[in-house]
Amino acid sequence: MRALYFEEHGGLEQLRLGERPDPKVGEGEVLIRLQAAALNHLDLFVLRGLPGVPIPLPHIGGADGAGVVVEVGPGVQTPKVGDEVVFNPGIWCGACEFCRKGEHSLCVKYGIIGEHTDGTFAELVKVKAEACFPKPSHLSWEEAAAFPLTFLTAWRMLFTRAKLQAGETVLIHGIGGGVAQAATILARHAEAAVIVTSSDDAKLERAKELGAQITINYSREDVVRRVREITGKKGVDVVVETVGKATWMASLRSVAKGGRIVTCGATTGPDPSEEIRLIFWNQLSILGSTMGSQREFADMLAVVNQRKLKPLVDKVFPLTEGAEAYRYLAEGKQFGKVVVDVQA
């Protein structure tokens, strides 16, 4: 099969387009001929190498994808050959105490397609049959590939972990990011008020189209002061944290007493300054979150199928220009998902 892969960790110069062996499906697995795949910042991290995460080389990146089932392994009843599917990008064992409770993203052997196994920047990918769901019929292949990881992550952050309620106020840092955009769409769907930040005025204007009511350009305004002004000194009920080091103190100072900060990543670094007195004195809840369970994926997909949520696609590249897709994402100019047309 044709694939975009790398043989050594490093920069974009390590990416290669060439032939790789077709995946072999096993018990409970299916083989999908991909039509489209989407990039996440995770793909940049995997290319550079993640400390403490062994990644077999050569490696094919990509967690998100949508395509047609072309082969099923032993024991698979559904999906069937010919079905159009999307899939939960998580990998879980199915046997540990967390999997038995339906908490798949807490699995003791949890992984992500494209990080712990070969991913979707290829003509074929194998996944767990149970991870597959029917592709929403009203979405294009590019749109269908664009939403699973970011929408699943944002869904668990907001509704399972932070227990967001209608009428609450949410602060979302870095609206250029995929999870931040998904969180904005989902928070507005839940009838919460949304404040977003960016240093790019054009992205802030686009955020209003997603439903953000208040935008803050952090290169010109003090985020904490502005949030306190907006909320009458109270602070926000929930902070969605994907940035880490650069925004952590602002998050601690922007959240209301008894409020929640939910974090799923640290794109600017994992070791921020800390002020623990703010946490205990204001009785804050610091909530970690990673991806999501099968139930959460099904719940999120049901809302997508009701045409109440729609993923945002910024730009589509053919697989032959996959390295340029990586570059475009790395430059941070996108607003919406960067997608690869695998069959172009």
For this structure, the CATH topology of the largest domain is Quinone Oxidoreductase, Chain A, domain 1
Number of strands: 18
**Spans where pLDDT lies below 50 across 5 or more residues:** none
CATH level-4 homologous superfamily of the largest domain: Medium-chain alcohol dehydrogenases, catalytic domain
**Multimerization status:** single chain
User: What gap, in angstroms, lies between the N and C termini?
Assistant: 14 Å
- Tally of contiguous helical segments: 11
Return the CATH class of the largest domain: Alpha Beta
Structural class: alpha/beta
Provide the β-strand percentage band.
Answer: 25-35%
Q: Can you give the mean pLDDT?
A: 96
- In the CATH hierarchy, what is the architecture of the largest domain at level 2? Alpha-Beta Complex
- Helix and strand string, N-terminal first? EEEHEEEEHEEEHHEHEHEHEHEHEHEHE
